[in-house]
Amino acid sequence: MAAGRVDVAELHAPFTHQELILREALGLAADVEINPSGGALAANPMMAAGLIRIGEAADRIASGAADRALAHATSGPCLQQNLVCVLEGA
Amino acid sequence: MAERCAVIGIGQTEHSANRDDVSLPGLLREAASRALDDARLSYADVDAVVIGKAPDMFEGIMMPEIFLADALGAAGKPMLRVHTAGSVGGSTAIVAASLIQAGVHERVLTVAFEKQSESNAMWALTVAVPFQQAVVAGAGGYFSPLIRAYMRRSDAPEDTGIRVALKDRLNALKNPYAHLKFPDIDFEQVANSPMLWDPIRYLETCPSSDGACAMVLAREDALTDTEHPPAWVRATAMRSEPTMFAGRDQVNPQAGKDCAAELYRKAGISNPRREIDCAEIYVPFSWFEPMWMENFGFSPEGEGWKMTYEGATALDGDLPVNMSGGVLSSNPIGASGMLRFAEAAMQVRGQAGEHQVDGARLALGHAYGGGSQFFASWIVSSERS
Q: Which of A27, A64, B153, B164 is most buried (most C-beta within 10 Å)?
């Protein structure tokens, strides 16, 4: 994140408190749009929920809605495993 | 160009029916610590951990990678879990090797395991899954008709399987880690053991084991000053196919033939029987030795049994197979594939002890899983190439 801001972040947070923890841990600014897709609270096909975050972030870039987007995937009730990727338009 | 990958540390547990002296994390740590000791490294020197095991139902612990992370020194590091049924130990090693070859990491610890005493694998394999063929009565019930089909096709002598089992059980006596050891084993004992799933007798069958295997893989510029030289990963290959489809040859699956073809092409091998010094292959039921000899191109179709019969696959034959005693002697399912890959590496590193093949420099490790549908294989060499 040190390299610059993101417009959108898709966070894999099946429980609301996890979104708060992740916002802080990832240093997301207050104006970053979080989970425009509705996130895992809106649809949670378990093992696919993380991949969907990456797909949703990519879709925002493809549609022109964002230049730079962050996607996050996790496993475990205590956010034990975490994957973060940043996607950019051409 | 891909980075070169070498095996610089190998460790395994003592395998037995019930390792109730250790917890599941303790079992993995026993193998991982031995591999790190062999590599002269500590957990802190590893960049990432790749683990593999068979279905979670085999212990009844869902997603065990989460609670195993700490015991394997993976806290704060990338950790990946691989799952391809019985071939998983092999494919786990291949995923770990690919992280080195792709230049992502310098050193990767890879571990595979099963603690079968925690649950009941035969029950776990008998659960009816909607829209899928039920395996019913475990792996033996599934594979015995395929062996019958092989016997009919090849006209192999009825005692071929007994000879394979006797050979592997004699080899196991030379392996300090093997689960099953029968010091006075002979042909008659195997032949007279109870028939479980005709034509598979009790002593032609793999055991249910607790055990783990681990390897440390390193990039060429991250080698350590180890007692044994590195085993260079010359080639890896994986192939998959569905369990059922019209016209599928389950005795000699296309996925296995394709896996072997890619492996030999990548390794620059044109005559595997002559060029490869020894092979450690996944033989959970005795008859799969001749079946996989044919599938992996070591013999013409229908003639794999002759290799067993003529003693070619014995420890002193021209292509020793399953020097460690194989899956027939130790079967911690998830680890069984990695044990094959590790044995191949031990051979070319010259660290196989009493079951060492003199002068082995090119060795094949093989694993298969599911309904003979997942194949993983690698060729390791004492030479960097």
A: B164
Q: What is the dihedral of CA A74, A77, A78, A81, to 10 degrees?
A: -30
> Phi then psi for B138, rounded to 5 degrees?
75, -170
Q: What is the pLDDT of residue B133?
A: 66
| Helix spans in B184-224 (H) | 187-192
- The label of the residue with tokens 């044109």 reads B270
**Domains along chain B with CATH numbers:** 5-120+208-222 (3.40.47.10)
| pLDDT per position as a tens digit, B209-258 | 999 999 999 999 999 999 999 999 999 999 999 988 999 999 999 999 99
- The answer to whether the bond into A77 is cis (omega within 30° of 0) is no
B326, HSE (Cβ side, Cα atoms, 13 Å): 33
Closest residue of B to A75, CA-based? B66
- Residue B219, token pair as written in the block: 């990039």
State pLDDT tens for residues B122-140: 777 776 777 766 666 678 8
Query: What is the pLDDT, as a whole number, of residue B141?
Result: 87
Do residues B116 and B209 lie in contact, with contact meaning Cβ atoms separated by under 8 Å? yes
Residue B22 in this model has a pLDDT that exceeds 60: yes
Query: What order of strands is seen across the sheet that includes strand A68-75?
Result: A33-34, A8-10, A68-75, A81-88
With H, G, I as helix, E, B as strand and everything else as coil, classify residue B286. Answer: coil
- Across the interface, whether the CB atoms of A76 and B66 are under 8 A apart is answered yes
CA distance A11 to chain B (A): 19
Do you find a cis peptide bond into B130, omega within 30 degrees of 0?
no
CB B115 within 8 A of CB B19: yes
Place of tokens 């489809």: B245
**Among A46, A47, A79, A80, which would you mutate to test the B interface (most chain B Cβ atoms within 10 Å of its Cβ)?**
A80
* Chain B positions in Cβ-Cβ contact with residue A76 (cut-off 8 Å): 63, 66
